[in-house]
Design brief:
Elements: H1 2-27, E1 77-78, E2 88-89, H2 92-96, H3 105-134, E3 143-149, E4 152-161, E5 164-177, E6 191-206, E7 209-224, E8 229-245, E9 249-267, E10 274-292, E11 294-296, E12 299-314, E13 317-319, E14 349-351, E15 354-369, E16 374-387, E17 412-424, E18 428-438, E19 443-454
Antiparallel strand pairs: 1-2, 3-4, 4-5, 5-6, 5-19, 6-7, 7-8, 8-9, 9-10, 10-12, 11-12, 12-15, 13-14, 15-16, 16-17, 17-18, 18-19
Length: 456
C-alpha cells in the first residue's frame, strides 16, 4: 500500500512538471500570431481601416469597433477608439518591446568595431615588438621567433627571402555584457560570446625602419539575450604599417580597410518564429603608437601611449519575418480575423543603414624579467574610449515599469595581464599568458592563450 501511494505521488509529480513545462514553453507566444501580421500587427498604427479581432479566454469576438471586453485593457490597443478607425490587440511583448524588438546591429556593432581594431592593431604591434627585440641594433631579425601577447600567440619567420619576414598571429577572447535581463519586454543589451582572430603579414627592414603589409580576419559568435537571438559577424581587412626605432623610442603607424558580413537572428515576440537578417559593412581603421624602452639589469621596462580607431558603415537591409504558416489559433483563424482580412502573411522589418565608431586612447607599461630559461612579464594598461552607444527600438506603448535598463555607455577601462615565456633545453620554446579587462561598465572580457615550438 505504501509503495502504491509513493508511485501515485511520483506519477502526479511527473504529470505536473510536464504540464508546467508545456505552459512555460507556450507562454512566450500566447497568440501564435506575428507582431507584424498584415491584418493584426503593430505596423498598422492608427491609420488602418480593416477590422481585426483577437481571441482571448476572457473576452468575446467583437464586430463593431468598441473596446474589447474581459481582461484586455484599452491601453494595449493601437488605433482606437477614434472616429473612422478600428482597434487591434497586439500583445504585451509586441507592444512593450524596445530592445527585444531591435536587430542586433543596433546594439552589438559598436563593441565589435572595438574588438576588431584591438585585435588587428594588437597583432601588428606585437609583430613590430618582436622584430626589434630579436635584434636590439635594428629591425633586421633573422630566423624563427615566437611570442605570446594580450590577444593570442604569434610566430615570425624573419629575413627569409630577400630581407623579407613572414609572420602570423592568432587570438581568442571571451566577452559578456552583464546588464540585468528579466524578459524581452524590459530593455537591456545583455549578450555574450567569443571572438577569434588571425593576422598574417610580410615586412622588410630598411636600416632601423620596418615597412609591412598585413591581412586580418575576425569572427564573432554572440548570443543576444536582449532579443532572444544571435549575432555573427566576419570582418576581413588588409592594411599597411610603418615603424622606426631610435636608441630609446619606437614609433609606429598603421591604417587599413576591408569589408564584413553580418548575420542576425531574433524572435518574433508574437509567434515565436525566428526573424533572420543579413547585411554587409565597410570598415576602416588607423593607429599610432610611441613606446620607450629602459633596461635595468635583468629587467626591461617599456611604457607606451597609443591611439586606435575603427569606422564601420553598415548597409541597410531587411529583417525577414516568416509568415504565420504554423499559427495554431484557438478556434481557428476566424476567431481572430474577419472574413475580409484573414491573412497569414506578415510585414518584414526595414533596418536602416547605421554607422558606428570606436576610438581608444591607451597608456600602458610592460615589465619583463630575463631569468635565463624563463622570462615572466606583467602588462598594465589604462584606456579611455568613445564607442558608439547601443540604440533600442522605440516602444509602441509605455509599460510603466522602472526595470528597463539604459544602454551601456563605455568610457574607460584598465587591463591587467601577464605571462611567461620559457625554453626547455635548446629545442623547445613556448609561453602562456592570460589577463582581464576591468572597469568597463556592464562588461566582462578575459583572454588566455599559449604557444609551443620545437626546433632541431
Amino acid at each position: 500500500m505504501k509503495l502504491k501511494r509513493i508511485l501515485t505521488v511520483a506519477i502526479a509529480a511527473v504529470m505536473s512538471l510536464g504540464l508546467f513545462s508545456m505552459n512555460s514553453a507556450n507562454a512566450a507566444g500566447t497568440y501564435s500570431i506575428s507582431c507584424k501580421n498584415d491584418a493584426y500587427g503593430m505596423q498598422l498604427g492608427s491609420d488602418y481601416t480593416a477590422q481585426a479581432y483577437v481571441y482571448n479566454a476572457n473576452a468575446t469576438k467583437l464586430t463593431d469597433g468598441s473596446n474589447f471586453s474581459g481582461d484586455v485593457s484599452g491601453s494595449y490597443l493601437i488605433g482606437g477608439p477614434n472616429a473612422g478607425h478600428q482597434e487591434a490587440y497586439v500583445g504585451n511583448d509586441c507592444l512593450y518591446a524596445g530592445a527585444g524588438d531591435t536587430n542586433g546591429t543596433a546594439v552589438v556593432a559598436g563593441d565589435v568595431a572595438r574588438l576588431a581594431v584591438n585585435a588587428i592593431v594588437g597583432a601588428v604591434s606585437n609583430r613590430i615588438d618582436m622584430a626589434y627585440a630579436a635584434n636590439n641594433s635594428g629591425a633586421s631579425a633573422t630566423g624563427l621567433s615566437f611570442t605570446t601577447q594580450r590577444d593570442g600567440m604569434a610566430m615570425s619567420a624573419n629575413n627569409i627571402v630577400s630581407g623579407l619576414s613572414f609572420w602570423g598571429d592568432f587570438g581568442s577572447t571571451d566577452i559578456k555584457n552583464t546588464q540585468t535581463f528579466t524578459n524581452v519586454r524590459l530593455d537591456s543589451n545583455k549578450y555574450d560570446g567569443d571572438v577569434s582572430s588571425y593576422s598574417v603579414g610580410v615586412d622588410k627592414t630598411f636600416g632601423k625602419a620596418l615597412i609591412g603589409v598585413v591581412v586580418s580576419s575576425l569572427e564573432t559568435d554572440f548570443k543576444t539575450t536582449f532579443n532572444d537571438g544571435t549575432y555573427k559577424q566576419d570582418i576581413d581587412t588588409y592594411g599597411v604599417y610603418l615603424a622606426y626605432k631610435t636608441s630609446m623610442l619606437t614609433i609606429d603607424l598603421g591604417m587599413g580597410q576591408g569589408d564584413s558580413t553580418i548575420d542576425t537572428t531574433r524572435r518574433d515576440l508574437g509567434n515565436d518564429q525566428t526573424i533572420t537578417g543579413k547585411t554587409t559593412a565597410d570598415v576602416e581603421y588607423s593607429n599610432a603608437r610611441i613606446a620607450a624602452q629602459f633596461n635595468r639589469g635583468k629587467f626591461s621596462i617599456v611604457p607606451s601611449i597609443s591611439y586606435r580607431s575603427m569606422d564601420m558603415d553598415i548597409a541597410a537591409f531587411t529583417d525577414d519575418r516568416p509568415d504565420d504558416v504554423s499559427a495554431t489559433v484557438v478556434g481557428g483563424a476566424a476567431t481572430i480575423f474577419s472574413t475580409g482580412n484573414a491573412t497569414l502573411t506578415v510585414t518584414d522589418d526595414a533596418i536602416a543603414a547605421r554607422s558606428v565608431t570606436s576610438e581608444t586612447m591607451e597608456a600602458g607599461i610592460n615589465i619583463a624579467a630575463n631569468l635565463g630559461m624563463i622570462v615572466p612579464y606583467l602588462n598594465l594598461t589604462y584606456a579611455t574610449e568613445d564607442t558608439t552607444k547601443a540604440a533600442y527600438k522605440v516602444e509602441q506603448g509605455t509599460d510603466g515599469t522602472a526595470l528597463d535598463v539604459a544602454a551601456s555607455n563605455y568610457s574607460s577601462s584598465y587591463t591587467i595581464g601577464g605571462g611567461v615565456n620559457f625554453m626547455v633545453g635548446s629545442h623547445v620554446k613556448g609561453g602562456v599568458r592570460l589577463g582581464m579587462v576591468n572597469g568597463r561598465d556592464d562588461w566582462e572580457e578575459s583572454y588566455m592563450a599559449g604557444n609551443l615550438s620545437i626546433g632541431f
